Amino acid sequence: MGSVNDLIMEFACSFAREIRAKAILLYSEVAKDISVKKGDELCPQTILISKSDEVPKNIKHIGHVIRIPDVGLTRLSQVKIAITKGIATGLFEKGDKLVCLTGIPKFGYVDSIFLIDVGKEFEILTSENISTIFEGVRAEVFDTALNIALELAAQGREGRPVGTIMTLGDHEKVLELSRQMIFNPFMGYEEEERNILDQNLRETIKEFSALDGAFVIKEDGVLVTAGRHLSAAIESKDFPKGLGSRHIAAAGITSVTDAIAIVISESTGTVRIYKKGKMFVDIEKA
User: Fold this and answer.
1) Of 31, 112, 163, 208, which is least surrounded by CB within 10 A?
2) CATH of the domain at 16
3) For residue 251, is it left (φ>0), alpha (ψ between -120 and 50) or beta?
4) From the CB of residue 106, how many other CB atoms can be counted at a distance below 10 Å?
5) Residue 18 dihedral angles phi and psi, to the nearest 5°
6) Residues 76 and 15 in one domain
7) What is the DSSP letter of 285?
């Protein structure tokens, strides 16, 4: 199917140039025989969405690689994750147009083209300055927390679905507006021993995700506590129907603090991100 892939890539490049797109997002698992060459004036920069550190040998010219977790995700969720991470790192801005190429990995060829307008796809960006969405939280901390949440949503814990909240940033205000439900499992440890960026802590975090309450995490990734009840909540009448107490609590705490909240729905496995009392994006598992 190499010729088909190359024809699709040629069309995508021409289309992206015509609409002045910022970039083409290409899912690596369907790009194994697509030629992406340096110096192709027809094509904007190509950004690879990948589940691994390997870049297909045929792809010689890549602007960036955005890594997503190796879990079951819908193709639209893959695109949403990549764009969310791109916004967090300053790669994408409000108003950017992105041409996204995806497909089914086992077939190995592109079968879908999405056009995403960054400012319109993410509802909160219509009313908020994009530069303030991730302000106060290090990009690698957000990236790690989101990866852990997506893994938990897809895999659960010991065969059971998991629901939890992680708040990132503005931890002192979050602590003021919450109360401890259980003994703090991170108390007594040095900060370098309880940082979410430490790969050795991943299983510990996943284990504590079964506890009631939220994780509170500093902007630099230090885990302050788990099992925290978030007291600030918006009125349920002002909230979309069908979302439970975790989502109301996440929207509430982000409406009165500068924190970001990542929520895993126990019933559906959907991961939602909240900022300033509004849902930024929802990511469905496959």
Assistant:
1) 112
2) 3.40.1380.20
3) alpha
4) 7
5) -65, -40
6) yes
7) B
> Quick one: DSSP state of residue 229?
E
| Residue-number span of the structural domain to which 116 is assigned | 2-121
Q: What is the mean pLDDT of residues 263-270?
A: 91
pLDDT digits (tens, 9 = 90+) for 69-92: 988 888 888 888 999 999 999 899
Round the CA-based radius of gyration of the chain to a whole number and report it: 20
What is the per-residue pLDDT for 1? Answer: 45
One DSSP character per residue, 48-93 reads: EEESSS---TTB---SEEEE--SS-B-HHHHHHHHHHHHHHTTS--
Q: pLDDT: is 73 or 176 the higher one? A: 176
Angstrom distances, CA of residue 149 to CA of 62, 93, 136? 28, 24, 20
What pLDDT is stored for residue 128 in this prediction?
A: 58
Q: Is the dihedral of CA 195, 78, 120, 272 positive or negative?
A: negative
Distance, in Å, from the CA atom of 106 to the CA atom of 168, rounded to the nearest integer, reads 36
